Amino acid sequence: MLPEKYEITLVDVKGALVKQHMKESDIEPGDALLFDLGWWKIWPDKKTVDAAPPHPTIELINWIISMKPSMIGSDLAMDSPPDFPLHENLILKNGIFNLEFMNFETLQSTDRKYIFMFIFTPLRLRGATGSPGRPLAIY
């Protein structure tokens, strides 16, 4: 589990890709980029919503944007106050959806598959800025 206030860097993400035997070129426009930071393991502890969460640096946010994903997902609200640069830059400026508070337990198999078809089915709510939904990973 990453500690509170940890700044997730591009070096961290590139290191994770290497550990997962992946390359940046494996990421295609429209993919979903999922960040398992270990916080799902303590849900629903109050800390998961009250703490200062780990959050990406501006360099990492810009890299995410350059990869052109359709969405990102993580196991907490992965942004930093007071200006919330992830929400502003991904959602507002680039239309990249952000799925928060995911539970990665079913993806923690011994197979360790990191490339799969990801489907997210949100509710269609008129005028809403968010929605509960059902994330599905198909290997």
Reading off the top of the CATH hierarchy, the class is best stated as: Alpha Beta
Number of helices: 4
Task: Give the radius of gyration.
Answer: 15 Å
- What percent of residues adopt helix (DSSP H or I)? 10-25%
Distance between the termini: 25 Å
Characterize the quaternary organization of these chains: single chain
Name of the CATH homologous superfamily: Putative cyclase
CATH architecture: 3-Layer(bba) Sandwich
Q: Mean pLDDT, nearest integer?
A: 91
Shape: globular
Query: What is the N-to-C succession of helices and strands?
Result: EHEHEHEHEEE
Strand content: 15-25%
What's the total number of strands?
A: 7
Enumerate the strands of the largest sheet in spatial order, edge to edge or round the barrel. Answer: 2-4-5
Residue ranges: pLDDT <50 for 5 or more in a row?
A: none
Textual characterization of the structure:
The chain has helices at 10-19, 47-50, 58-67, 85-94, and strands at 7-8, 32-35, 55-56, 71-74, 97-99, 117-122, 133-138. The chain is of the alpha/beta class and 139 residues long. 24% of the residues lie in helices and 19% in strands. The protein starts with 6 loop residues before the first strand and ends with a strand. The longest helix has 10 residues, at 10-19. The strands form three sheets. It has a three-stranded parallel sheet with strand order 2-4-5, covered by helices on one side. The chain has a single domain (7-138), classed as Glucose Oxidase, domain 1, CATH 3.50.30. The chain has four helices and seven strands.
